[in-house]
Amino acid sequence: MISLTIPWNKHVLIVYFSQCRKVTQISELTNSQPTGLERLSVELETVLGEIKTLQISQEASIQSLQRTYKEHREVMIEQMCGNLNTYIDECDNNSVGTSGVNEQYLKEEMCRNVVSIVNEFNNITAKELNEMKDEVISIKGSVTSSIHKCTSLHYDLSQFHEIVQNIGDNKELCLIASIKCKHIIQQALTLLGKSGKAFNVQRKSVHNVRIPSDSHSCNITGICALPDGQVLVADNDNKRVKLLNQHYQVVSHWDVTAKPLGICQITPSEVAVAMNVEVQFITVSQSQLAKGRKLKLQHPCDCIAHHQGDLFIASGTALYKYTLNGKLVCKLYENKSDNYRGKNHGGFILITFVLCTGVF
Q1: Which spans of this chain does UniProt mark as NHL repeats (predicted)?
Q2: Which stretches does DSSP call E strand in the chain?
Q3: Do residue 28 and residue 49 come from a single domain?
């Protein structure tokens, strides 16, 4: 470490420098490090296209989110108006042939009930809409931040792509451009979820989870490890959820009404199972399974994840956010062009059967 003392106004500024272990001139590096500008140009062009596609997709996500909120709001208002119209029609029918005191009583009763319907809308539905609006604003802010990163990286990549195309035969400039390009490409790959980081498999083992009463071969479509080391698996073809002990032996099972597709942990002793258009909650106690409550959905339920008290459910073409009580918070994303699509949206990755939540 080298220090340099500099007089500065009435103070003394001390600057510390780290001493380089080795200094190599660029001219020397050009002979030992290949630049490969042609390949680099192709890579820049490819990443440019992917960043642009990601940006377009994220902008579409925001539009879809806002559209979902608007549609939900209109439905809620329409329901309230429908309730008011229905009640007023009933009052009109009941008021036929009445007069005097009875007519006055009916008018007062109608006013009270109309006020009650409006108050219910203000206290419950309006609150729900405000919560949904706050959620939309929060998610929009996160996605917008990612879009800004895309825009900035797209500009930088475009600049470097133009430089690489016109750099000529200057080896030193080629080397500098190559180093700079690789750095910006790495940033872009990180945003695209292609940073190159990978998990290392330390060991693997094979276990048979078939039990004598199974009618079909096991088809495991979901797996969930509990904190105590027990594991739950969703056996799709046999319509069963099986509990494995710490030695991966089946110690209990529960027959479900539809083919289970996914499973996630809710608490240390409770899981949620995605099956068809339902979510079945199952509790684990003393190595036994017990059926809990069930949520009915208005769309397919192919994949499920739990994050910070909320359920994230994929239908094959859309991603929904629910409360644990089954109330729909919002539709986060939808793509009807094809089922079972994999999409990288900067902050989260949605693959129909694999759901990784990193934004919410």
Answers
A1: 218-247
A2: 2-8, 11-17, 220-225, 231-235, 240-244, 250-255, 262-267, 270-275, 278-285, 288-296, 303-307, 310-314, 318-323, 328-334, 342-344, 349-351, 354-356
A3: no
* CATH classification of the domain holding 313: 2.120.10.30
Residue 146, number of CB atoms within 10 A of its CB: 20
Co-location of 130 and 226 in the same domain: no
Number of structural domains, the chain?
Answer: 3
Residue 279 lies in a domain: yes
Report the candidate in 294, 296, 326, 289 with the shortest Cα–Cα distance to residue 311.
326
Question: Is 154 part of a structural domain of the chain?
Answer: yes
Separation CA 242–CA 233 (nearest Å) = 5
Q: Over the stretch 70-110, which tens digit does the pLDDT of each residue have?
A: 887 787 788 778 777 777 777 767 665 555 556 676 767 77
312 and 225 within one domain: yes
Closest Cα partner for 219 from 210, 228, 232? 210
Burial class (CB in 10 A: 0-12, 13-18, 19+), 184: middle
CA pair distance 68, 60, nearest whole angstrom: 12
- Edge-first strand listing for the sheet containing 250-255: 220-225, 231-235, 240-244, 250-255
Decide if 101 is inside a domain: no
> pLDDT tens digits, residue range 246-276?
888 999 999 998 999 999 999 988 999 999 8
